[in-house]
Queue: 2 jobs
Job 1
Amino acid sequence: MKQFAVIGLGRFGASVATTLCGLGHQVLGIDESEARIQAMVDRLTHVVQADATDEDALRSLGLRNFDAVIVAIGHDLEASTLITLMLKDMGVREVVAKASSDLHGKVLEKIGADRVVYPERDMGVKLAHSLLSPRILDYIELDPNYSIVEMAASGELVGKSLRELNLRARLGINVLAFRRGEAVNVSPGGDDVVQEGDVLVVLGSNDAIGRLERLRG
Amino acid sequence: MKQFAVIGLGRFGASVATTLCGLGHQVLGIDESEARIQAMVDRLTHVVQADATDEDALRSLGLRNFDAVIVAIGHDLEASTLITLMLKDMGVREVVAKASSDLHGKVLEKIGADRVVYPERDMGVKLAHSLLSPRILDYIELDPNYSIVEMAASGELVGKSLRELNLRARLGINVLAFRRGEAVNVSPGGDDVVQEGDVLVVLGSNDAIGRLERLRG
Ligand SMILES: Nc1ncnc2c1ncn2[C@@H]1O[C@H](COP(=O)(O)OP(=O)(O)OP(=O)(O)O)[C@@H](O)[C@H]1O
Ligand SMILES: Nc1ncnc2c1ncn2[C@@H]1O[C@H](COP(=O)(O)OP(=O)(O)OP(=O)(O)O)[C@@H](O)[C@H]1O
């Protein structure tokens, strides 16, 4: 069991804190707002109402021995950077801070944040891609040229077996798995026939994946 | 080339809008704040300053023929839901709205949003998982039991060939690809030796992936 502290229990901070707690770890939540504290009091191990820019208050929490401290303050850049700086000075092993802009992120890195995250920016990029390729449900970018994608099957792909489709020879695409309803087949064979609504998990070059996307009509 | 409109150019909305624009599509940005409009004027196809809850103003933008309209307003739930409702009434084909809480999301679904996204919540969950499994860089959940993960190699894995490691027979884990520096090898063979800092992309049950995580010390 690990120990985490989350400073700033807004939408993002609360999500990090409740997820860690739900997975069985100890989580201390800190926020200056009474309302946010009340909202989280039954969902975290401990909660404390405090202005985390107050050094005495921060020191009194004994955060030094925690596995990681997350600073999830977006609008008050001064508070976010001041708190991050004090935490590193106090010897906290890992400080993860959320940034609201590239500039904010650069400052956080310079003053010693171990990791900087950009939740809104990253999800914005992901939504934009999913609007352009609505059938791509999820993806891992292996490098600039290769990806693994989860793709809903339709059009020309439906009703054919993997052997007939011959995606490896035609496009250089490897079918890793496919899902039908709740069941996943992690070693698909040539005789498996693709049906409408199946989800294919494929590995290939981004060009080949683009061609596969167009195949489906 | 597609046409999108983004209402609310905060951190998330601006990220969606600039990503779509950067990929060569037309993007109309709308915000009631002069400062946000000024910040975006050179980065989007068009920008308009308007209070989107004003029905006449919204109708005058001719959004009906856009491929999708994104409503990215988080703090003013009433504005977000009112705007979403008006857009569907006007016949906009696809309305994607951001929600700040489960309750907000339920209301948006009920009034006809085609898709509801929870950027802060989802990124909070992802950060929590990455704090608990720091070597897992990215993952696709295939179903509750199987995943594809990108994992940094270390410990017992280093210095051995894939044949020696024999991960398929020992753990039922399929090594799909591995990355060393910038280069990705999408068809790894038995003779490939794992080095410190390599990233393995593997497919297996979540239990087996957990055992592999522990192997590395
Ligand atoms: N100095 C501080 N000490 C403690 N808590 C603080 C401090 N400053 C801000 N907070 C709290 O941090 C939380 C998040 O802050 P803020 O609203 O700036 O971020 P945000 O990026 O909009 O959050 P999110 O997008 O996660 O909802 C709020 O609940 C706020 O009360
Ligand atoms: N009625 C409205 N019409 C047009 N724009 C609006 C309206 N209400 C809010 N906005 C704009 O929407 C943007 C985002 O709003 P808000 O701050 O509520 O969301 P947020 O969830 O904190 O944003 P983010 O996390 O993306 O920064 C702001 O730039 C704001 O000016």
Note: The first helix of chain A runs from residue 11 to 22.
Job 2
Amino acid sequence: NVHAIRGVVADKNIVKISILGVPDKPGVAANFFVPLGKARIKTDMIVQNISHEGRSDISFVVAQSDAREALRAVQQAAAPLGSVEIQFDPEIAKVSIVGGGIASHAEVAGEMFECFSKEKINIEMISTSEIKISCAVRKQQADQAVRALHNHFGLQNQKLEASRA
Amino acid sequence: NVHAIRGVVADKNIVKISILGVPDKPGVAANFFVPLGKARIKTDMIVQNISHEGRSDISFVVAQSDAREALRAVQQAAAPLGSVEIQFDPEIAKVSIVGGGIASHAEVAGEMFECFSKEKINIEMISTSEIKISCAVRKQQADQAVRALHNHFGLQNQKLEASRA
Ligand SMILES: C[C@@H](O)[C@H](N)C(=O)O
Ligand SMILES: C[C@@H](O)[C@H](N)C(=O)O
């Protein structure tokens, strides 16, 4: 499936903010992301999974240079909600495979995750689209992950890197 | 920001499978998605957020026609792991905004979520990339969500629909 994947991208210039235990009802996501937008803070890898007992977590990443302001905006938005916990994680990287063939190649996701497994790299978050699979990992493991993905998908000469992909 | 967003896509021909409480250690994601790939089941909207007490949830969607086989593959892969719960949700739809301007327009995510909020539509999962923001909602609310997004982003004449986007 060497043609399914066009490249591997690692983004290390990011931090992760997780908002834990938000009420899973209409308006809550807007409550956080409208102020972030008004503050002109670009968010990426917004991830929310299914809720448990009416509560959900929302995580996202921002550029390191936006970390302080993003955290402030989220803390302000969280205040009226009560029992919400905010976690800040500066030691994260986003490692992604990109390619038009992802949606049509059923095996690609498992192969990417198996690369991480063989390197004993823990996958902390996953977010996908039809042309991109992104995994959050420890920043110090990003280079190792990229090398392993390049080797597996035969992309040694097509390395793409972006400081804010 | 009418140029930031190129279209709205709704995918109703999908079901959601959530694997709850998997150990958050290397190899677990591969444990599920390698067999899915071998069974040639195309997965989309793979979502995993941060773990709690060493356990995490992994959700994904498949085409309705793949539901039975996907569920079987996941149940088999879960068996050795012990206390893992599998949830199956056929009443889900994926509603997405697509556009090259998403990454560079900080306000777009909040505006999308605010559309759902105004319609009192609950956002059940979120997965993003630089050119796409996808939200999982109840299937019967998908059309209403699409109309609201079209109206907000001024896309009445650019409606894109896909049975498997
Ligand atoms: C948790 C959050 O996404 C909420 N369900 C909302 O619709 O805004
Ligand atoms: C939960 C799962 O993603 C696990 N962390 C893994 O690396 O496979």
Note: Chain B touches chain A through 61 residues (CB under 8 Å).
